[in-house]
């Protein structure tokens, strides 16, 4: 049996090498358009930033090494230009010689990835994109050239993961960077109050961030924004997002999903039983609803590539829906997310409970503890975890990965209370931040505590609800929510006569507010605690 694979990077190469491991006799041909296969896309921004200095380190395999170890026929500069489904063959153009030839297959795997989206605005041809080694060489040369000029500047269109990574790396190289983002926040997989932390950090590190802004024109050394502002721009980069490469599939009459990717079932089969598809080009199933989703991430591409090889080799496996677990780092700050945001859950009509906490990555008494902000999005009716986000330093990755694992395993938010996680003071806390989210979820589920979100507060205050800041007078003096009176948590029992029947309490991060709420509730008051405290509220 002969399998032809189109695209030899994440999904395609995972399929090829797994198939060889399962079937020594399979014919395997990999056709890649660029001059390289199996390169480290995710490392490209760090080569631009000189963090990875050895270009060869980006090239994980070569056609020769893949032939030598796996007996795989890998052909670079070989673009598939059409698929003949009836004849079970593809037409390949050799990009070095211009020759065309026919390659037949028993099974065909499409792993063509997704192309950067470049908006149709005047002068945009000057904008650089980053997808492959060729792009990387061009961008690295452009950065080197820019650095020979007086005050090099870069405008990055798009504040997603790649835009933020490039902002860090170009700043470290000595360019003055502006991110121009159309949405009102960076990093769409985060909610606005979590993304605000990343934005502030970038600004502290010298990156200019313009949200709610768009580039309308690119000129030779500047860009124009739609509000009439002009920004100097030695370099212009488009990092607006990617579009699935579906041209071949569409021309071959394969079914596409509603969101524009190639439609596949749970064995990654397309509408043609002999043709599979994986990676950024395909529509995936959302883990919360099973709806179609585009999730252009390396994890699903690699896992699904491996899975296709299993299916071709006759193993009984099927792909799982995806959570979209993702992480990005910038100037030492980490932002990670899994599942849905609050905004997405609300837009889908879910009734949600939201939990914000601001724990340390390990016991506070052990030197070097770093803070983080965590957010859990919970279905208020079922206690299902819909999503989680974390922003901070060390340990954010671990908490989001634990929660992603819990979601995959079908645990509820309250179940997080009972997870048994590794602990010694330099690594965590006996009540780990993930456990703490579970405790709060359990309290909320059981009606022991009620919270109010930062964006709901103003409406309540306008209705005349009493707001009590239960922090110390010194903290209160440094800044509080407008209209709050100060009764420190330790004084509450003595000053009960000042507390009305219906009250909102807040502290710095939510913990003392919770204590206050428990005390006052037992004295007959209806109490809501400002979730995430003053810190979350003040952020936005
Ligand atoms: P790709 O890996 O893109 O491979 C597709 C290949 O197919 C390309 O080389 C393309 O040239 C080739 N091809 C397309 N059409 C044809 C054709 N007709 N004939 C022959 N060849 C063809 N994801 C993460 O999870 N974490 C990260 O940190 C991360 N960082 C990233 C940083 C950058 C700069 C980029 C570009 C992506 C990053 N990603 C990251 C996304 C991740 O790389 C992709 O999700 C993943 O590579 C998708 O795998 P794929 O196999 O679908 O496509």
Could you characterize what this model shows?
The N and C termini lie far apart (59 Å). Strand 13 (222-225) and strand 14 (230-232) form a beta hairpin. The model has no long low-confidence stretch (mean pLDDT 96). This protein has 15 helices and 29 strands. It has 540 residues and is α/β, with parallel strands linked by helices. The structure holds flavin-adenine dinucleotide. Flavin-adenine dinucleotide binds next to helix 1, helix 2, strand 4 and helix 8.
Query: Separation of termini?
Result: 59 Å
Taking pLDDT < 50 over at least 5 consecutive residues as the criterion, the unreliable ranges are none
Sheet of most strands: 5 strands, parallel
The rough form would be described as: globular
| Whole-angstrom Rg | 26 Å
Q: What are the bound molecules?
A: flavin-adenine dinucleotide
Count of helical regions: 15
Q: Kindly name the structural category.
A: alpha/beta
Q: Compute the average pLDDT.
A: 96
Oligomer: single chain
Order of strands, main sheet, comes to 3-2-1-7-17
Helix content: 25-40%
Per DSSP E runs of 2 or more residues, the count of β-strands stands at: 29
Range of strand content = 15-25%
SSE arrangement:
Blueprint: E1 2-6, H1 10-22, E2 27-31, H2 44-48, H3 63-70, E3 73-75, E4 78-84, E5 89-94, E6 100-104, E7 107-110, E8 114-116, H4 133-147, E9 153-157, H5 161-173, E10 176-181, H6 192-204, E11 208-211, E12 215-218, E13 222-225, E14 230-232, E15 235-238, E16 242-244, H7 247-251, E17 275-277, E18 284-285, E19 292-293, H8 298-312, E20 326-330, E21 333-339, H9 342-347, E22 352-357, E23 372-379, E24 385-392, H10 396-408, H11 433-445, E25 451-452, H12 457-462, E26 466-469, H13 473-478, E27 485-486, E28 502-506, H14 511-522, E29 526-530, H15 533-539
Parallel strand pairs: 1-2, 1-7, 2-3, 7-17, 9-10, 9-15, 10-11, 25-29, 26-27, 26-28, 28-29
Antiparallel strand pairs: 4-5, 5-6, 8-16, 12-13, 13-14, 18-19, 20-21, 21-24, 22-23, 23-24
Bound molecules: flavin-adenine dinucleotide.
């Amino acid at each position: 049996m002969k399998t032809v694979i189109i695209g030899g990077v994440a999904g395609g190469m995972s399929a090829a090498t797994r198939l060889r491991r399962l079937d020594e006799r399979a014919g395997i041909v990999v056709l890649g358009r660029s001059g390289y296969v199996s390169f480290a896309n995710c490392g490209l921004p760090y080569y631009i930033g000189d963090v990875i200095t050895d270009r060869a380190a980006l090239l994980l395999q070569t056609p020769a090494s893949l032939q030598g170890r796996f007996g795989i026929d890998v052909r670079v500069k070989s673009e598939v230009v059409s698929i003949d489904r009836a004849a079970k063959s593809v037409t390949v153009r050799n990009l070095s010689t211009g020759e065309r030839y026919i390659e037949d297959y028993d099974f065909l795997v499409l792993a063509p990835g997704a192309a950067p989206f470049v908006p149709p605005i005047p002068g945009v041809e000057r904008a650089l994109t980053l997808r492959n080694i060729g792009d990387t060489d061009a961008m690295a040369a452009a950065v080197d050239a820019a650095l020979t000029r007086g005050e090099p500047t870069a405008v990055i269109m798009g504040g997603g993961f790649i835009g933020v990574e490039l902002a860090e790396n170009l700043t470290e190289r000595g360019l003055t960077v502006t991110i121009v983002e159309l949405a009102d926040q960076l990093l769409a997989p985060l909610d606005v109050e979590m993304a605000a932390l990343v934005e502030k950090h970038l600004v502290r590190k010298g990156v200019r961030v313009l949200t709610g802004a768009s580039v309308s024109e690119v000129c030779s050394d500047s860009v124009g924004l739609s509000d009439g502002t002009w920004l100097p721009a030695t370099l212009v980069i488009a990092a607006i997002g990617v579009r699935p490469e579906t041209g071949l599939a569409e021309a071959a009459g394969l079914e596409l999903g509603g969101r524009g990717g190639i439609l596949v079932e749970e064995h990654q089969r397309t509408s043609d039983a002999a043709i599979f598809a994986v990676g950024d080009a395909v529509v995936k199933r959302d883990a919360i609803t099973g709806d179609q989703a585009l999730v252009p991430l390396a994890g699903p591409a690699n896992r699904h590539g491996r899975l296709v090889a299993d299916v071709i080799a006759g193993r009984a496996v099927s792909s799982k829906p995806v959570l979209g677990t993702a992480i990005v780092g910038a100037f030492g700050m980490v932002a990670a997310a899994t599942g849905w945001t609050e905004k997405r859950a609300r837009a889908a009509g879910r009734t949600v409970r939201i939990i914000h906490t601001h724990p340390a990555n390990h016991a506070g008494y052990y030197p070097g503890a770093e803070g983080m902000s965590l957010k859990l999005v919970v279905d208020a009716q079922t206690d299902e975890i819909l999503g989680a986000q974390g922003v901070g330093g060390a340990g954010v990755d671990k908490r989001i990965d634990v929660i992603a694992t819990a979601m995959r395993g079908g645990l509820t938010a309250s179940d997080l209370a009972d997870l048994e996680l590794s602990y010694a003071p330099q690594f965590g806390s006996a009540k780990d931040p993930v456990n703490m989210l579970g405790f709060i979820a359990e309290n909320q589920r059981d009606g022991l505590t009620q919270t109010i979100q930062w964006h709901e507060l103003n409406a309540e205050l306008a209705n005349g609800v009493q707001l009590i800041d239960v922090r110390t007078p010194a903290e209160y003096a440094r800044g509080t929510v407008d209209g709050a009176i100060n009764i420190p948590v330790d004084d509450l029992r003595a000053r009960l006569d000042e507390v009305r029947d219906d009250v909102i309490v807040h502290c710095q991060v939510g913990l003392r507010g919770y204590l206050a709420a428990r005390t006052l509730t037992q004295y007959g008051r209806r109490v809501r605690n400002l979730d995430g405290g003053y810190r979350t509220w003040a952020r936005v």
